[in-house]
Amino acid sequence: MKKPTIAISWNSSCGGCDESIIDIEERILDIAQKVEFVFWPCAMDFKYSDIKNLPDADIAVSLINGAIQNSDQERTVKLLREKSKIIVAFGSCACFGGIPSLANLTTSAKIFVQSFFKSPTVHNEEDIVPLSECTEGHYSLTLPEIHKTVSTLDMVIEVDYYLPGCPPTAKMVAGVIERILDGDLPEKGNVLAPEKVLCASCNRNATKPDNIKINEIKRIHEVIADPELCFLAQGILCLGPATRDGCDYPCIKGNMPCTGCMGPVTGADQGAKMIGTLGGILCAENEKETESLLSSLVDPAGAFYRYSTGASLLGRKREEG
Amino acid sequence: MSPDFKPRIIAFLCNWCSYEGADRAGGQKLPYSATVKLIRVMCSGRVDPQFIFDAFRKGADGVMVLGCHPGDCHYRNGNMNAMRRMVLIKKMLKTFGIHPDRVKLDWVAASESRRFQQVVNDMADRILKLGPLSLKGCVKEVVEL
Ligand code: SF4
Ligand code: SF4
Ligand code: FES
Fold first, then answer.
1. Based on the structure, what is the number of domains in chain B?
2. What residues are in contact with ligand 1 under a 6 Å CB criterion?
3. B125 touches chain A (CB under 8 A)
4. Which of B84, B91, B96 comes nearest A317 by C-beta?
5. Which of A108, A148, A291, B62 counts the highest number of beta carbons within 10 A?
6. Is the pTM of this model over 0.90?
7. pLDDT digit string, tens, across residues B47-82
8. How many CB pairs under 8 A join A and B?
9. Model confidence at B2, in pLDDT bands (50, 70, 90)?
10. Is A153 exposed, middle or buried (0-12, 13-18, 19+ CB in 10 A)?
11. Given 3.40.710.10, 1.10.1750.10, 3.40.50.700, 3.30.160.40, which CATH number is that of A5-99+149-182?
């Protein structure tokens, strides 16, 4: 019998998601015996045409990581959608835009200026900017066009399952691949992780007072954190209340607060939920006090939407006051 | 701004004070801007910031939260939670390039029908000046350089 085929693809991402698949260690060998890889640009040499030549819906599952930010990524994921039975948005960039979607808080034109002219590591005497098309002798050369807005995968193609995490832990990855091979999958559209927030299973939950009150927002690098007390109770920003459970809280165990990499639970907007939490625990009785308490929170969007700007209800930055 | 811009403003009113105030304004036939649509909630503290973002997402040009005056909240400190959240919301809106005046928190007591009329009409004027918001969100467009 023909082995089920699997494709792994990346878009705007750091490579960590591909790495997390390799991180499942010897289990990947078991898996490699059961499946056949037909596409994995990060690890093996396949071409776009290899996929194009397949019949429709031939690939059992495509694990797609990264946000969508240019025309080439869009073309590849659309092709994978045609050729795959199941599409998994793999990792928080594919699910919610991830770190690359922080670009939605500025403009692509500004990013170009920064990257090609202003960045201190750039030396561009001839003012060369990449064009999407140019002619060199007899050849017409093309480059992908960059999108104005960084999108989540499901804004571009239909997604069947979501596996969040930055990156998803090896345990989550191995679990999901096994579930897919066993055909043990929930209804389409589901997130393959628990539908509750991190605080629910965090080992510091027991030390969280019923009524947290904080009169200072401390940044983790400015303090020596207590290794047992709930971070929020210490006045250290922790995104546990606005973040999905399922990672086994490695950060908390390492005495670092959660920065929210699993993204929000279904239907929630991570930034809005974190505003809700923080608004309830600050010791401030009027706007002035609140503002001064929040002065150390210099970048609320970067702090609350670090991994989910692309999915924010507020959309992308526009120009207004 | 197009001359036929009709703002869409959503106002969340706490059941115990502000909604009573609005009701009284109605009883007294005090006219107020028809651009403001009222939604009754139990307390201003019940207004999850997501309700506000969602309203913008679904086409609101402005969102108000009206509650009991400080010290008068029927759940003791719901209105203070609303106040602190509103400061954060304004900060967040700014980073997305949305004018912070598109949200407004204010206090209206059950007896203050005229105050209700005033704050609502002021908001309607402000939003009329700011123009439509139309959050399109993440529609991808190709950059022309
Ligand atoms: S706020 Fe952070 S440290 Fe506290 S219980 Fe939640 S996840 Fe754990
Ligand atoms: S604790 Fe938070 S930041 Fe750390 S892995 Fe879990 S979800 Fe991600
Ligand atoms: S009951 Fe009116 S604001 Fe809380």
1. 1
2. A 198-199, 202, 204-205, 208, 230-232, 238, 240-241, 252, 257-258
3. no
4. B96
5. B62
6. yes
7. 999 999 999 988 899 999 999 999 999 999 999 999
8. 144
9. low
10. buried
11. 3.40.50.700
